[in-house]
Each structure stands twice: as structure tokens, then as C-alpha cells.
Task: structure prediction
Amino acid sequence: MNTQEFIRSFEDLSIDPSVFDHQHHVLMTWHYLNFYPFEVAEQKIFSGLTNLTRHLGVYDTKYHQTITYAYVKLIHSAIKKDPNRNWETFKNNNPNVFKPVRELMKEHYSFDVFESNEAKLYKMDPDLKSF
Result:
């Protein structure tokens, strides 16, 4: 599946959840941030993930607003430093965004903040290290 087919299947909720791994979350975020103004991209990312997790019946267990916010900020920052619109180049130049989620989050958030109900439900700024 190419990127356009992947994005289409994400948007129309037909994506196979077994292929929507961390790398595909990053790809989706990278795609929107590259091809839409920031505010539009951010809205598409948040609403798309909310819609998908609700559609799959996993919103309460899988969706975490602060994780999504953190990745949007980190990927946006990486794109601003190197605006090359090539996915393979982005992957090679930004291995940090492919780290395990909890490993990357603990660089920016204390355990108490990251594990709070507020962090799950709302976008929270990091309390340890800014993006």
C-alpha cells in the first residue's frame, strides 16, 4: 500500500488495525504536517485518531491525547529543521521519533504527569524537557 492509499484507509476507517503500528502513526503525522498548514494537520491527526480508535472500540484503552500532542510537536520540529518531503530521508534523519513511545515520553514528561488522567484526556506540555 502506498502512502496515499494508507492515508485514505486511515481517513475512511477501513485500515487494518494490525498494520497501523508506531511507524505508521509517525508516517500519518509526517504526511499531514508536510502537506497541510499546521493547524489543519493537527486537527486531522487528532480527529483521525479519535475517530479510528472509537470506530475500533479502543478509544478508552488506546487513545492518549498527550502522546499524540508530543509526537505532533516532535515531528513538526524535525520537519522545520529539515523540510525535505521525502519519507525515507525523514526516517533516516530522525530515529528519535521511532523510539518506543514510553522511552521517548520519559525524556519529556515525569511519570506522574505522563500517567495522569489529565494527560490521557488533554494535551499537556512537557514538564522535563521541551520539544
